[in-house]
Amino acid sequence: MIEALKQKLGDEVEKLRIELNVTLPAEISRAVEMGDLRENSEYKAALERQRLVQARLGQLTMRLSKLSQIDITQIPTDRIGLGSKITVHDQDSNEKETYHLIFGDSVEFDEGQVTMSSPIGRVMLNKQKGDLVVLKLPARTRKLLIVEIITIHQAKPDELL
Question: What is the rounded CA–CA span in Å between residue 103 and residue 41?
């Protein structure tokens, strides 16, 4: 999973670098040729996009650096850890929910993804199948029974992305 995530982020970095170093300079140059930059919306839009691309590149570079520091052998194989997909049974509502434990610095979250630093992520970390987890939230307390765990080691590469 980590290698697939690195590849995905690396692909995005490459696209953004091309945009930053090829596409945007061409757009800025074209806008400058039109003259009077104070009222040139194309110029302002290209500069704004350039700032956004630079910021996103910074985020991705930092995230790739953190990913490179992860030692997958330190992630538990029999308990909930980074990359685990967890199915729980809510004892009060009698409903099943699935969560996917991800990094805390993620910019975009898919449905069901929770960070390891979130309240639910912290309470589930290192738990096993069959454990009853008590999640104390400001509005209420939830009791969740862990019914299934797929760890990063058990999952197929595309299963946990």
Answer: 38
